[in-house]
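User: Show me sequence and structure for the first protein, then do the same for the second.

Assistant: Starting with the first protein.
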Amino acid sequence: MNPKNSSAIKAEEAMIIDISHHQPSESINYEELAKHVDHAIIRTMDADVIDREYEKHHRKFRAQGVPTAAYAFVRGQNDTHMINEAKMFWDRTKDLNPTFWWLDVEAVTHSDMRKGVSIYVNEMRKHGAEKVGLYIAHHLYERLSLDTSEADAVWIPHYGSGSASADSTPKFPADIHQYTDKGRLPGYVGHLDLNRIISDKPLEYFIGTEGCI
């Protein structure tokens, strides 16, 4: 991988997308899309459902110099499920060496989500994940009551008016703001989830080049 010069990109101007098999590889011109993307966060799985495109998305974006991270939708219904999901996430993605491991928490599945997600985070670290982040549904943030101090970063969706522009800010502290699911970028004909950094963390923190630039 020949990454872009991330040190020349201001954090607030960095374009971050997140994708899954809902954006099929055959519909993406990776060379063109990569010109407009600084970081891609790619879904690995939704519980026991493996994303059909995740390996290809990682390879294709990295071939164009775009650093990639991984995310998994959290579905664990008890402590054992959380442990097992963490192992599946690790096993399916470890060889891709993502820059960040994101746990996507958008549903209340465990009787104590704070405890359950904490177990998941700790299991990821036991397996070797260096940076683990939490994607937290805005409308469930208070109910979930996750221990964000255990995470290396927080990512929150908040779409504001529903347009493709970043015209809102999450009510809760976050490092990355997912501001639309109706984004458009050259290289893909459909809608894309677009994200921006809203904390004082530099882009390098998320793409694994901090201290190496």
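Switching to the second protein now.
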Amino acid sequence: MGLGKKSTLHDYWTRHPVLHSSCAPKVIVRERLLSILAFLHINDNATFVPHGQPDYDPIEKIRPFVDHLNAKFKEVYQPQQEVCIDEAMIPFKGCSGFNV
């Protein structure tokens, strides 16, 4: 949710002096954000293909959003030369289920 990563969503609204974050409570009330997250759906859950099936898509829940962003990025950004981004150029310290 920002530069200061917290272990849980509730930690952004804590009053504990070590974990306190001044940004999130000023922008939105915690219950309001949780309500929005509970009802925000980008794709129909009834159409999901289970993990391990041939048509399984790991980002199926947000696929329409990703497709829309990709289309808009192609409209806006037209590179004038070849662009290459290698995995060594961008540091990554986590694990991803999207590796092929």
